[in-house]
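Something for you to look into today, if you have time. Just paste the record in under my message, thanks.
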Amino acid sequence: MTKRRSAPTFQAEPGLQFGAGLAANGTRIALLERIGETGSITAAAKAVGLSYKAAWDAIAAMNNLADRPLVERSAGGRGGGGTRLTARGQELVQSFRRMEAQHRRFIESLNETGAQDGDDWRVLGRLAMQTSARNQFAGRVTRRTRGVVNDEIELRLSGGETLVATVTRESSETLGLKRGAEAVALVKASSVIVAVDDGVPLRLSARNQLRGTIEAVHKGAVNSEVLIALAGGNTVAAIITNGSAEALGLAVGTPALALFKSSSVILAVAP
């Protein structure tokens, strides 16, 4: 049995946004904190992974933005020069750390919710996916037939329909396309052929033949977008010429078939 994918986890670094610029973030606060501990810009910069110049630039910017200086540098003398964090700087570091602790508790709470509602988070993750493919179907792998070069993958959609995709064996292994694995099938609308379903069986090489009814026909200057509603609730979009749409007599409610080759199906999985 394929191991179920764990729910996604939230990760975020706290920061304060004012207008269009980020006024305070973890790195700048850590720099102030290290200055307070070491009394040295060189040591503080090294500790937080900044160059000496970048650290000085950050300090200058923070001093300019603050209501009172956060860092002061004393000139060299008998005791030598130094850098110190002012009382105001200490206050801001402490305030940021308190907000950071609250932020951490909030993230932990979100992750606890995600662990309890893992299926919902996975669906929300798929909804956020952006792709140029007009047709996007979520499903689960029901069969994988291995080949020397390519594997044939059967994907059962949420509505009960089955899609067949041909992918390279390397891709099949990399994506973990085993029985029970969740995957998303992507099909460009231009790869879908529309046929009128008059009850006569069609003998075609296209592996995917999905039956439904015409839900809408959007006519353009040259092409028409045809939406076919499947029995299970999914919708297939196809782009065909206006001439073809007229020749087929496509109208809302007309029984139709959406046809596309298995090689036209791209499979994707969530990370």
In short: Confidence is low (pLDDT under 50) at residues 18-22. The first strand starts at residue 15 and ends at 18. The first helix runs from residue 26 to 38. Residues 26 and 157 are 44 Å apart (CA to CA).
